[in-house]
Specification:
Elements: H1 3-21, H2 66-75, E1 81-85, E2 90-93, E3 106-111, E4 121-126, H3 135-156
Antiparallel strand pairs: 1-2, 2-3, 3-4
Length: 159
């Protein structure tokens, strides 16, 4: 057998093996598209090439309320920022002492919804060594963040 033919045979074997691996091993429970989906090229809305193209709309907004995000950063500006992720809406801070306070805190803030609503804001405060913080303190910080977010929204003129 010559080397060109052996190379072609090897390439074909690899392609067949790769194609066979796409079948999955679920015993036939998932056999491709659902009965309601139409995979004809003229009907299908996405293709494998959409993965490599940059078809994303640059005006797509992230699911985090910008007023809550900015208000959280402003109200807790005495805490050093450890990490922020605007795509998931999580802000993690280090320990810091509020102005006029004697106890240090650290916070984890999660903004879970694009709505300017109390249910969108999740705040976790910890004292030194992971000590629990009084629920009244947590509520006061949440109220301060929500109040500031409403003020920012009014300043922005989007009522």
């Amino acid at each position: 057998m010559n080397t060109a033919r052996a190379a072609n045979l090897m390439t074909a074997t690899v392609l067949v093996a790769a194609l066979a691996a796409c079948g999955g091993g679920d015993g036939g429970a998932n056999r491709g598209p659902s009965a309601g989906s139409d995979m004809r090229p003229e009907v299908r809305t996405t293709t494998i090439w959409d993965l490599v193209r940059n078809n994303e709309n640059p005006h797509t907004s992230v699911g985090v309320n910008k007023y809550l995000w900015n208000a959280s950063l402003e109200v807790l500006n005495f805490l050093p920022i450890q990490s922020v992720d605007p795509f998931t809406g999580v802000i993690v801070t280090g320990y810091g002492t509020p102005p006029g306070g004697g106890r240090s805190y650290r916070a984890t803030i999660r903004i879970a919804d694009p709505a300017l609503d109390a249910r969108s804001l999740k705040l976790s405060l910890q004292g030194p060594g992971g000590a629990a913080v009084a629920p009244g303190t947590v509520r006061a910080v949440e109220d301060a963040i929500l109040t500031r977010a409403r003020q920012l929204r009014i300043q922005d003129g989007r009522l």
